[in-house]
Amino acid sequence: MKQPDYLNTKANVILYHADSIENKSDFEIFGKHLRLQGTGTAFVYLEDYQNTQVYIDVLANSNVQLYMIYKTSKPSEYDIRFHLENHAVLNLFSLTRNIEIVNLKIHRQFHIENNARLNNTKALINMGFTTLEDEVHLDSPNATVNIELLNIGAYNDKFVVTQDIYHNAKSTTSNINNSLISHANSELDYSVSGRIAKGNEFSVCRQQNKGIILDENGVIQVLPKLYIDEYNVEASHGAAIGQMDDEQMYYLQSRGLSEQEARSLIISGYTKPFVSAIEDEDIRALVERQIKKRINEANIV
After folding, report:
1. pTM to 2 decimals?
2. Span 210-229, average pLDDT
3. β-strands 204-213, 234-236: how paired?
4. Is 239 a member of any domain?
5. With 0-12 CB in 10 A as exposed, 13-18 as middle and 19+ as buried, what is 53?
6. 279: Cα within 13 Å, side-chain hemisphere
7. Does residue 8 lie in a domain region?
8. Does a structural domain hold residue 10?
9. Residue 3, in any domain of the structure
10. pLDDT digit string (tens) for 92-130?
11. Cα–Cα distance between 264 and 258 in angstroms, integer?
């Protein structure tokens, strides 16, 4: 397969296409298992991959930046399994790029061991009907997950997202921050759950969901849930969903901005912090182009 131009200058590229895997990296693949060891950056590109299961193991004491890009031209379903061993750190950035309006389902399961940390960043700015299921198991003490998600819906896009965090040990930590934008008949449906079982004291479970609806036909639904069976923990959740603030618009326009400029500035408050945190310049530029395309196509600004 031909890899995209923005990956041509990258080292450590792994291509999943049709029923094959092409490993252009220094990391090892055993069967279906991609093993990330040591310190470094890898780029995984999945295009219409038919062997839907992918296994990614981050070995003990490793610290890896992983960029995963999904590109689909037909209905697709992926099952991605991650395992972070003791003291491993995985900085995971995922981007979904559809070239057709298709149904896409991604199920990801993460198991995080002692003193390991997952920083999980996801950009959902694609077309069509997308289902994302993230299931995170904090299996050992001091396991941590931080989730940052940006979702932009336009036209008749529909996103169904489930985020389930299982605190399976003491002194585990989870933080979820979802930033959602809906316009032009798009529907964003979120179920966000944190679970702390009895005996898993000193754990921390935080959820924050914010959303802006830019059109009267747009929909954002967020159902935050906490299942807490232990007293000595910290748990919180919140959801702030609404239409663009008229007072903010008035204030910005009173300072000389046009209506379009004011709307653009408010939207950038959701997108800019997310984009600026992407370390790779080519991937950051790719995300910026895709956000701009989605916004302009939907006539948001």
Report:
1. 0.93
2. 91
3. parallel
4. yes
5. exposed
6. 11
7. no
8. no
9. no
10. 999 998 767 889 999 999 999 999 999 999 999 988 899
11. 10
